TrEMBL record:
Protein name in the entry: Choline ABC transporter substrate-binding protein
Lineage: Bacteria, Pseudomonadati, Pseudomonadota, Gammaproteobacteria, Pseudomonadales
Domain of life according to the entry: Bacteria
Listed InterPro entries: ABC_choline_sub-bd, ABC_Gly_betaine_transp_sub-bd
Gene this chain is encoded by: choX
Pfam families for the chain: OpuAC
Domain ABC-type glycine betaine transport system substrate-binding, first and last residues per copy: 34-269
Length: 300
């Protein structure tokens, strides 16, 4: 799904015009849009959030109904990027180094030299022949089960343990406390990377993709948007998020129960250096210095 954010009453827009910015409505995509809308509101823009599916969002951008997409995960969305090529402009990568593959606790890597998928079966008894996944039916679980069914890496006699994200991570915590081996599905950004010392495993390219199932997330706009709305365009071109930032905010949402808006606002208030670079060359709606306005809006 997608989140779309409307910015209204901007002098960059036609009279009575209404434009929108968009981001994927996964937890991390939600963080992108909450951070961005917090800054936009501090600059004097009004924002509104709706939900769209990924293909409808791409189509809407091609039709000039949507202005900005902050959550273009590549290569996962390559199909849609290719299908609607020419219907959008790519500004920049706003997040690099995302991962999605199997991992073990760092002590397992240090003690046994487990650094790749190929190392797992050498220590099958210590791992109890189990790989811990998430909810039944999840695509990632299906990849793990396919790997087992194919007996790749000698894992044919292993078992996929399906549970939930919370259940899987509870198992990881128990294993760490008892100094026992465990292998499980892991991804970044996510607060698990702050709560656990993880070692991501190499060699799973055929299942999760290269670079540890790596992804780069891009900011897209509809054609011509940055020329029409130069101030917002400058902000969007400056936006760059970091993995630890996202993991920390996600932890506030998932573990502490904070609302996404509250968590994003609190993070920005505690880390004004983060948005200082975003606001280089950016003003408020009425042309005043953007950095001072956003700081004031955050109570700084």
């Amino acid at each position: 799904m997608w989140l779309q954010t409307g910015t209204t009453d901007s002098p960059e827009q036609p009279p009575g015009g209404r434009r929108r910015a968009v981001a994927v409505a996964e937890v991390q995509g939600d963080i992108h849009i909450r951070l961005t809308t917090t800054v936009l509101e501090g600059l004097g823009y009004d924002t509104h959030i709706d939900l769209l599916s990924v293909p409808i969002g791409f189509k809407s951008m091609q039709n000039n109904d949507i202005d900005v997409f902050l959550g273009n995960w590549m290569p996962a969305q390559q199909k849609f990027a290719d299908q609607y090529e020419g219907g959008y402009e790519r500004l920049r990568a706003n997040l690099k180094g995302a991962k999605f593959t199997l991992a073990v606790p760092e002590f397992v890597k240090e003690k046994a030299g487990v650094t790749s998928f190929a190392d797992l079966d050498k220590h099958a008894d210590q791992f109890d022949h189990k790989i811990y996944g998430i909810e039944p039916g999840a695509p990632a679980n299906n990849l793990i089960q396919k790997m087992i069914d194919n007996d790749d890496f000698g894992l044919g006699d292993w078992t996929l343990v399906e549970s939930s994200e919370q259940g899987m991570l509870s198992q990881v915590s128990r294993a760490e406390r008892r100094d026992r081996f465990v292998v499980f599905l892991a991804w970044e950004p996510h607060p698990m990377n702050l709560q656990h010392d993880l070692a991501y495993l190499s060699g799973g390219d055929d299942y999760f993709g290269p670079n540890y199932g790596g992804a780069t997330i891009y900011t897209l706009t509809r054609n011509g948007y940055s020329d029409e709305c130069r101030n917002v365009g400058t902000l969007l071109d400056n936006l760059q998020f970091k993995l630890d930032m996202e993991s920390q905010i996600m932890g506030s949402i998932l573990n502490d129960g904070e609302e996404a808006n509250t968590a994003a606002r609190a993070y920005l208030k505690a880390h004004p250096e983060v948005f200082a670079g975003w606001l280089d060359g950016v003003t408020t709606v009425d042309g005043q210095p953007g950095l001072a306005a956003v700081k004031s809006n955050l109570g700084l």
